[in-house]
Design a protein that fits this description.
The protein is mainly α. Helices cover 70% and strands 0% of the residues. The chain has a single domain, classed as MetI-like (MetI-like fold, Orthogonal Bundle). The protein contains 15 helices and no strands. It starts with a helix and ends in a 10-residue tail after the last helix. The relative contact order is 0.14.
């Protein structure tokens, strides 16, 4: 029996290692390619750069890339703040406030999740155009500032949140809103951090909406800018430049993740009693 368990464990670890290599190989290739010359990439070359070069990074920073990074940071940060505020409040209301039509409203929200975003693109463009927000960052922010999926996530979190804590706060004289701000939110850091990371990452990687709403190169977001940059090379795509831009573009995601990592790995204990 022990021999069979050991064989199974070795097999599982071997499969996981192979899967990890397959998953990481394209990322490692991208990093190494960013340090190659265009000629070496075009000629095939080896996996490791024959001549390490920073040419791709120099070219990317000579373009409007820093401006696109700045644009994406502003839009992603503001959109994340709005999402955390509205999604969290909506989730709490759906979980805790007993108002007429709550179940019907929640059912309608779940139905809306099933509608593909592509279906609403044209109506969305017409609305944004009528508001005069075309070629404005607010066109991205307003159309992304609420997410039904994260409303549902926060609702599930607050349903499992102990009512005793809220009742104790109300007995101490706090209003419903005061209880939400001073008691509930501090205990919801894990759920809020999870929501924040995924919202930020979604906006940071968004391509369709910037392509639809933004037309001025100086207002491009990062994904749109990288796409435009790749089209500037008429004869051949300079993959060293594109890979350099792609590697730099993932740095903010890593920073956000490492800053909030403790909220992912720390168990969120909702069974704590009233102190």
């Amino acid at each position: 029996m022990k021999k069979n368990n050991r064989t199974l464990k070795i097999t599982v670890y071997a499969l996981l290692i192979i899967y990890s290599i397959i998953t990481l190989a394209p990322f490692v290739w991208s990093i190494l390619t960013s340090f190659k010359t265009t000629a070496e990439i075009a000629g095939g070359g080896t996996f490791l750069p024959e001549t390490w070069s920073l040419g791709g990074y120099e070219k990317i920073f000579d373009s409007q890339f820093p401006k696109w990074i700045s644009n994406s940071l502003i839009v992603a940060f503001l959109t994340t703040i709005f999402n955390i505020f509205f999604n969290t409040m909506a989730g709490y209301a759906l979980a805790r406030i007993d108002f007429k039509g709550r179940k019907v409203l929640f059912s309608l929200l779940l139905v809306l999740i099933m509608i593909p975003s592509q279906v609403t693109m044209i109506p969305l463009y017409i609305v944004i155009s009528n508001l005069g927000l075309i070629n404005s960052y607010w066109s991205i922010i307003f159309t992304t500032m609420i997410n039904i999926g994260y409303m549902f996530m926060m609702r599930q979190f607050f349903i499992n949140f102990p009512r005793d804590v809220e009742e104790a706060a109300e007995m101490d004289g706090l209003t419903k809103f005061g209880t939400f701000i001073r008691v509930v939110l501090p205990n919801a850091k894990a759920a809020i951090a999870t929501q924040g990371v995924f919202v930020f990452m979604g906006v940071w990687n968004e391509f369709m909406k910037p392509l639809l709403f933004l037309s001025s190169p100086d207002k491009y977001l990062l994904t749109q800018g990288l796409n435009a940059l790749s089209k500037t090379f008429k004869n051949s795509t300079q993959w060293d430049v594109i890979m350099a831009g792609s590697i730099i573009s993932i740095i903010p995601i890593f920073v956000i993740y490492f800053l909030l990592n403790k909220y992912f790995i720390t168990k969120n204990d909702q069974t704590t009693g009233v102190k």
